């Protein structure tokens, strides 16, 4: 008789595509061929075609719930999965999770730990946590959760991980520790607390929220410290900078000597606590960081004070679209001169105008990218912006190049005339805007769908008569798989007709020739 495995593989794959997830899981332990085919079929069912480059959701189920055949079960069972290039796990905890069930992330993180453990290497890991705030854990559950989280993080480090991103929309362990304000309590009490806790932990200013229990914390294992290979790290979780996680975070940052750091945290309201976190962060990263990206930080002058202590920093990227001058209470510090060391700065234009109106010195600065966000409501005031740009040029001097970066997705009403090629009747701004020789435009891939959407790009070019080099950066829709794109010949012709001084056009870093065919050169 003909055996099942004598059937052509293509036919077996067609059969497996019709099997339910639980049936596919039953095929995992049969043999190597069916293990490969069944795990691949289950992964593709979850939208994963390449098991070495995958993103999946991981739910924390209630005790007693049957474990369903999710993407992680296929990754765990796949005998052929030994190395991974990229892994993103979105951990989702139900809102109704109770403290009597322990720390909500325990079970899924144990499973994820098993996957990382069986790999020989992994290049990049993204851990996204949606944690429930307000659960109070007793010492036993807290200790269990700390062990599980630190074991997972340490295991990731030992697998030659180059980039680690940790995103947490809540807090890992709730308010287990509370920052103790320096002025709270008597000076004698503060002195005693400092004397008893300074030597056993740098977190002596934090106390247990319930005023009792052991001072538990995550620690870096010797294997993690010995094998750390991190060069890039993103921290989007303030709780990583506070106990019980802070000991692991600052130790790992210092030991890894990372070159690229991304900070995206909701910083504490207490100035004393912010100062403590930033001072420890300086000690951990000042000997290695060359590229710093800052997102969602409201206290910009405090952050600039931190940045000024990074002597090796070459590139600073600030993404604070919601920031407004005057919201912060930091104006008492504006008389203190700040010296920054980077060569390249990128930030919203309004913030740059504010920053360079203060005592700010940047001796190595060579390029400033001014970011403008054009939305449905309208675009920036051209005359006011030109005046601010002129002041910025005077502040930084002639050796610093200013490059506009414009983010757009739609045509606001105020931009209709520009899209039709009609310049606004306000010649005051033209002198400043004509000085730009390089420009960057960013938006959705849909801008290339039709002449009606592509006219947004042409409309913006109407403002900049001196542009010689254009960079277009388009991102695909999340629902569409990214594919290589290039400008069509009519698009290149339309750009050249609008701005005849163009010498270079790049689309997603690929140079385009006059026929719209991508060349091999990149920028």
UniProtKB/TrEMBL annotation:
The lineage of its organism: Eukaryota, Fungi, Dikarya, Basidiomycota, Agaricomycotina. PROSITE patterns: FBOX (PS50181). This is F-box domain-containing protein. It comes from Laccaria amethystina LaAM-08-1. InterPro entries: F-box-like_dom_sf, F-box_dom. Residues 1-46 form the F-box domain.
